[in-house]
Specification:
Responsible for the deiodination of T4 (3,5,3',5'-tetraiodothyronine). By secondary structure, this protein is mainly α. It contains 4 helices and 2 strands.
Length: about 120
């Protein structure tokens, strides 16, 4: 099992190009129009409630936008989302799970040959 979907590499390449363009355009705009970009980012922070934090200082995190670290983080998250989706008739996503013992593993590790794998999710709240 463990083999990626046939089109996954093409999708990953597309996401890589999207994120790269996003970061490059954002960096250029941040250099050319720093006040406007700052206002837009702060407006997004208002929507999420981030700016209501008393320890919040936009000077600490706005410079991290469009950095190399930002690029790799966004790319990693977007690639992970590709693997967490499935198509009708396709393989189930190989999501990380935690056993009752606390050991971390992936769903595909429970598969044995051609036997069907049944996942039962529940909650005790």
């Amino acid at each position: 099992m463990g083999l990626p979907q046939p089109g996954l590499w093409l999708k990953r390449l597309w996401v890589l190009l999207e994120v790269a363009v996003h970061v490059v355009v954002g960096k250029v705009l941040l250099i050319l129009f720093p006040d406007r970009v700052k206002r837009n980012i702060l407006a997004m922070g208002e929507k999420t409630g981030m700016t209501r934090n008393p320890h919040f200082s936009h000077d600490n995190w706005i410079p991290t936008f469009f950095s190399t670290q930002y690029f790799w983080f966004v790319l990693k998250v977007r690639w992970q989302r590709l693997e967490d989706t499935t198509e009708l008739g396709g393989l189930a996503p190989n999501c990380p799970v935690v056993r009752l013992s606390g050991q971390r593993c992936n769903i595909w590790e429970f598969m044995q040959g051609n036997r069907p794998l049944v996942l039962n999710f529940g909650s005790c709240t």
